[in-house]
Structure prediction request, 404 residues.
Amino acid sequence: MRTVFTGAQLFDGSGSAPARADVVVEEGRIVDVGTALDGDHSIDVTGKTLLPGLFDCHVHVALTGIDLWRHLQSPFSYRFFQAVQNLRRTIGTGITTVRDAGGADLGIKQAVEDGLVDGPRMQISITMICQTGGHGDGWLPSGFGFKLFPVHPGSPDNVVDGPDEMRQKVRELVRYGADVIKVATSGGVMSPRDEPHHAHLRPDELEVLVAEANAAGRFVMSHAQANEGIKNAVRAGIRSIEHGIYLDDEAIEMMLERGTFLVPTLMAPTGVVRAAEAGVDLPPAILEKARNVIDEHRSSVTRAIQAGVKVAMGTDSGVTPHGENLDELQLMADCGMAPDKVLAATTSVAAELMGLGDELGTIETGKRADLVVLDGDPFDLKTLAHRIEAVYKDGELVHEAATA
Prediction:
């Protein structure tokens, strides 16, 4: 059956200005884009905007908030049932593809692929490789340990020291089903004994990581907040910098030269502060770190955008509530990114980052039919999330806004 979406204003993600067009879908693929097209079944979207399916390149679907005490009191398997709800909330925002930056295992991904659970298609990293005492170690001053991404039969321990352990861990993650390898090349906000401005792991460890990932056909993403940690990641050939809080001009120039992507996650540190204000009991040191990085983060992202670094949208959802992902769009615009470039970062650029540009990210003949029906102006980013009327994934309706 050929389904034709008629009368839409089309933002196709290619860089072209929105224009009137019909879109024909057959067997989950876009088979024609143009005017006065017909099909076996017609969906009238006159006066609406059609967008490509949106991307979020940094989520944690198996993480629901940062209340550590609540996590400690929850049964182990509870997080998997929460993930079902988180996936549904995510696809309901028009996000049809995500890159999970830790927490989701192969079972969650397969449940979506097999249709047991509604949600976006996924690339998974399973866990985040870190050094002893690094961001993700899980050690606590009490002498006990707690990992936001716990070790279990679908997720190995994540701490490595030295090139040999790094080589083994990358191979182990590939065995567990990782589509992308994630590593922490700096400290972070949510860990007790490291600092966001400290670089972690040495160049020889990172070189082995990238070599092993490349051998397995995997990209590498780096939690990288420290300036030197960012530079070490770029030198090693890591594909994307996640967060990028402390970027100097040299780091930005290196990213431009290497074609390294930036995934800003501007929501993340402000989300930590909001959680504390809402009553989540966070250690004072973590809250102080979150507050201290917000302004520097925005300044770094602003300068990267001005310089022309390739930016892909990511949120760190899980740290912040799932379903609020599109709040990131206005934050990117506030850093000087034009609205059409923000939407490109959330569609075509994100698809390029994830190696999916041949299949997704734009509305073009031959690509998978991920479509978002939007009421009103696509460049009104602040209200965009509240105007999504329908979401299609591979040509199938997966979300429809409730009508009064």
